[in-house]
């Protein structure tokens, strides 16, 4: 068991800002953002900083929220993914946080390379096909074909791949620093969620002189290679899925809806899908009915995505209960929502806030897939997955398929991992939920144990990413730190949230009525 230690010796940053963002940006050209009510500014930067070719540039757009009352600091916000658009997310994030955040902090969102309308890397047709196609581990050729088809079709769908070699987290960190230098180089607060913690650790390591404080929410342990990351996260997810089924069994309303053991209902459906996709009749908006295919890939995606939050767990259990009663429509519809597929047409949609090809372009640039050629790398990953599969029987795909696609991606990252994040003279706040399936608690503990002046705030039963999710305990600790410089009372603090919220029973239990 880990023990909370009293925090000693670190003086927090003063509450007053060095300079407000409004003052700092007076020399920049501002214009209304297209995706929010904020003010935007655009920097033209070198596409390849090493080549130093002035004819090869990229425009990076930053959205600015000026403090309404008094600026107590500038907070630069990195969203998750990789592939999330900071500009598209800005309004919803600001609405989710306590209003005091907009009152007392200047906040900067940005679209990093590969995201956003200007240079977003997205291939929705290839992505939807990849995400819904079964690639059983027992069939090596099927796995290789599915992954290679995605890589080939995605790059073809992009139409141009000039940006692909220049989208790593190191490139993005240099772009953030160019913005900070452009506003007079004030010390800034950094907030990263999920992948954003990867980016912000990279930035803080490269530019420690820039930091006033760092908040890492749903933290990535950068010392893990791709195999270590996926092993850690998939093991955690498998355990959380077991816990979700067990929670349903203990809850009378859920157990009654399920008509038996929740894990057994899931496993029975998964076994049916191993034999092939199941046609599901869907009623469309015009009243017509059309058969669509529920695949094992969709079931596994729904199960994994459900684990990100208590609400997601309950939603998945309701779809599973309906499936156990013979109605597969809710499970298919949930997959369409998770994978951004139009239920009317069955075709992929372009999510303005998510750029799927950027996920691979950035991740494959940050992590190596090992030596040898692409197919040899991919086959080695498949062999590893077969040995590991007994430990994660329900979520095996989550361990190997993204890695195989990265092994076949045309641009590879370094195989050598960075040293543990060291922290700095400023405070680092590590936030994590114990119910986090993708950046689970072992990653948070690793970062906390190695970083100087670091504090952990952990939410028992909590989701992936905890600040601004309506949880007063972590929110108060974060806000006291960034508003007033008040350090956490202990090196580790534990907050609580229900693992599974109130379960809403099914109202239509007859498939013909549903």
Question: Could you outline the blueprint of secondary structure elements for this entry?
Answer:
Blueprint: H1 21-24, E1 31-32, E2 39-46, E3 57-65, E4 74-78, H2 86-96, H3 99-104, E5 106-110, H4 116-119, H5 124-132, H6 140-158, H7 169-182, E6 188-193, H8 195-206, E7 211-217, H9 226-250, H10 252-258, H11 262-274, E8 278-283, E9 289-294, H12 296-306, H13 310-324, H14 329-339, H15 356-366, H16 374-388, H17 396-408, E10 423-433, H18 441-450, E11 452-460, H19 472-484, E12 492-496
Parallel strand pairs: 4-5, 4-6, 6-7, 7-10, 10-11, 11-12
Antiparallel strand pairs: 1-2, 2-3, 3-5, 8-9
Strand element count: 12
Provide a count of the helices. 19
Structural category is: alpha/beta
Low-confidence region ranges: 1-14
**Major β-sheet, in short?**
10 strands, mixed
Question: Strand content of the residues, in percent?
Answer: 15-25%
Over the alpha carbons, how many angstroms does the gyration radius reach? 23 Å
Helix content: 40-55%
Strand order of the largest sheet: 1-2-3-5-4-6-7-10-11-12
On the 0 to 100 scale, the average pLDDT is 94
